[in-house]
Amino acid sequence: MDKHNFILKSLDAVSINAVRHRRFIHSRPELSFNEYGTASYVCKVLDGLNIPYVNNIAGTGICAVIHGKANKSAAEPKTLLLRADMDALPITEVSDKEYKSQNKGVMHACGHDAHTSILLGICEILNASRDKFGGCAKLVFQPGEETSGGAKPMIDSGILENPNVDACIALHVDPEIDTGKLRIKSGSLYASPDDFKITVHGRGGHGAEPEKCVDPIVISADIIHALMNLVSREINPFDNAVITVGSICGGTASNIIPDTVEMTGTARSLTNDVRSYLKRRIGEVARGICATYNAQCDYEFTELFPPLINDAELSEKLYKSACKTIGTNNCILGGNATMAGEDFAYFSQERPSVLVKLGCRNEAMGITAPIHHSSFDIDESCMKTGIAVFSQFALDYLG
Ligand SMILES: [Zn+2]
Ligand SMILES: [Zn+2]
Fold first, then answer.
1. What is the CATH number of the domain that holds 143?
2. Quick count: other Cβ atoms within 10 Å of Cβ 271?
3. What is the CATH number of the domain that holds 217?
4. Structural domain count, the chain
5. For the chain, what is the mean pLDDT?
6. CA 88 to ligand 1 center in whole angstroms
7. Which protein residues have their CB within 5 A of the ion that is ligand 2?
8. What domain range is 72 assigned to?
9. Which ligand is nearest to the Cα of residue 372, counting in written order?
10. How far is the CA of 157 from the centre of ligand 2 (A)?
11. For residue 67, which of 159, 140, 138 has the smallest C-alpha distance?
12. What's residue 3's pLDDT?
């Protein structure tokens, strides 16, 4: 039986299991770096399949390894890493489904329950088709995507070595795309979601005597205005950047000029060049305006995830496997990037990588809520698409 037919034959049974996994995990959501129950469920499924793994990586992370048995003599067997995230969000789920969250205030509102279950389905198929590929598949279940990110500490612990990983793939459910379809975009896909904090130190006093003070509130207004101009006047319109000042804190009463004002914001871009430009210029603008008004300022810029850049060649290969599996009509090429962040970006910095958007929308079923929303849900049949395409790609890539 050829690879494609083998996947088709196993797909129905594997998809039923994946739905079962998803409902179990969905009803027991856990916050970032606390995915203990989820991780032990994943380990139990891997144990049941006799797939070897290392667990407790970077906390709750798991790396399972499936070695192919075909082409043993190949000079350079390849290793493909497939990654899923496991964490949920601090949101109270609004749902009347029987498998809704039992953990009040915590919810799988980003579909990571589906990602984990899809990867377990892929484990099942690859494990049963070891005679159909050479090299090695590494299946990575990572913690903490929604907060500081489990990808980097897992990479730091060595999951890209022994055997050396040649390429990495991941998927994310997308409620803007109909179930049954997926979208592949080469190049920039997610932004670097960095944080900054500016503290303006002026000199406080009576609101009636501003001439005796250095008013940090007025200075902050100028800084915020200048930061908006920074994006519109200094960033090439064909590049992308967002600066949002999300909090500003200063003052206690209408007639008092405070000593300090503190503001925090997010600065996002799709390339490393724009990223380092923003990092430098936000500080220069804030310091420059403060100097103009005889104030001082503290500036902190916290780099979170890097921009996620999909490898062009690998995107092309994945597109071919996807077309073969679900038909060209169901494979969307290109489209826009998002200014949200995604810590799979750390994989894309280290190896050729692709993250694919998997449609999970179903208007007829009323499944249209955006991710991170209390009513978010998926059309579970999307998992079959994810399992089929990624299994096909793994078998194609590992030959
Ligand atoms: Zn999310
Ligand atoms: Zn997510």
1. 3.40.630.10
2. 18
3. 3.30.70.360
4. 2
5. 97
6. 8
7. 110
8. 3-190+308-398
9. 1
10. 22
11. 138
12. 76
